[in-house]
Each structure stands twice: as C-alpha cells, then as structure tokens.
Design a protein that fits this description.
Layout: H1 3-18, H2 24-37, H3 42-48, H4 52-69, H5 80-95, H6 101-112, H7 117-130, H8 139-154
Length: 179
C-alpha cells in the first residue's frame, strides 16, 4: 500500500468512525496499516498502539492529533463535514467491492434519509430497490445508476464545509531520520 492510499484509508476510517459507521478498532487498524506503509508521527504511533479494549476509550483523544500531524482532517463527531466525508468513504467502499450497491444505498438512506442534497439521489435509488417489482426498471439498471452516483461522490475527497486541499504527506518529521 502506498503512503497516499494509506493516508486516504485512514482519513476515510476517521470519517466513518465520526458518524458511527465503524468501530474505533477499525481506525486503529488503519493507523497500523499507515505505519506499515511508511507514514509516521508520534500521534499515529500512539493511535496504532491501542489495543482492542483501549480503542473505544482512547481513539477520540488520539485521533485528532494523529490526523493533524499527517495533515489530514479530523471531523467532529456528527458534524456536517464528517457526514459528507463518511458518505464519500462509503461510496469508495462500494466501488472497491466492500459493499453491494443495495447495501450502499441502504446505509446512506438509513443514516441520512433524503438529506443532505449530496446523498438525496442515493436515498431515492434505495426507495427504487423497494419498488422494483412494480416498475419497469431492473436491478441491474438501478445498480448501474448507483455505481455512477458512487463514482461521482467518491471522486471528491474534500467537502463543502472542510478544507478541500488536504495534504496527505506527513507534516511531522522525526529528527532522527534527518541525520
């Protein structure tokens, strides 16, 4: 895994955790993967060192520092920026094959309803899955439209309420590494 993809994965996990989509232990796993990929900072090391038991208690304190040291964005729990970033992260997970199109729309619809506008069409498509037997569209047609929506959503890492030029290279430099 490249440092860029590890940073993106950590950012996505942080956003998903901020809205309750994944557990804290998954964020710790992404931090470990980031270290293995070559990212490094004191905060990242502390985050990666959390045990499964500690994760639920410590991630909320350690994550902001780790992300800041790497030049990534921390989204406050349940904030609008985090909600948008989480929706984009779910789209990337669907495109990577971790979720089906139906699972993706269902999660979006359950979490956000028909708001915000960013995910409104996905909620509508989730409704379409429920009424396919009464219409003239097929599952494949709805899946294709969901995939197109996911591609559009996933194409942007930034959000309207957060910085869009988030650097992914570490800002922290270990003094020992410059010798």
């Amino acid at each position: 895994m490249s440092t860029e993809s590890a940073a993106g994965r950590l950012q996505d996990h942080a956003a998903l955790w901020s809205v309750g989509e994944i557990r804290a232990v998954a964020v710790v796993g992404a931090a470990c993967d980031a270290l293995v990929a070559g990212l490094d900072s004191p905060g990242l090391r502390a985050l990666a060192a959390c045990t499964r038991t500690e994760a639920d208690y410590d991630v909320h304190e350690l994550l902001p520092q780790a992300l800041d040291e790497l030049g990534l964005v921390f989204y406050p729990i349940a904030g609008d920026g985090g909600r948008e970033a989480a929706a984009r992260a779910l789209a990337r997970r669907m495109l990577a094959g971790e979720l089906t199109a139906r699972e993706f729309t269902s999660r979006i619809h359950q979490r956000y309803g028909h708001e915000p506008a960013l995910t409104e069409r996905l909620a509508e498509l989730d409704d379409e899955y429920d009424t396919l037997e009464y219409g003239d569209r097929t599952v494949e047609q709805v899946d294709a439209e969901v995939t197109a929506e996911a591609r559009s959503l996933a194409a942007h890492r930034g959000t309207s309420t957060e910085p869009t030029d988030t650097p992914i290279s570490p800002r922290y430099t270990d003094p020992a590494s410059s010798r």
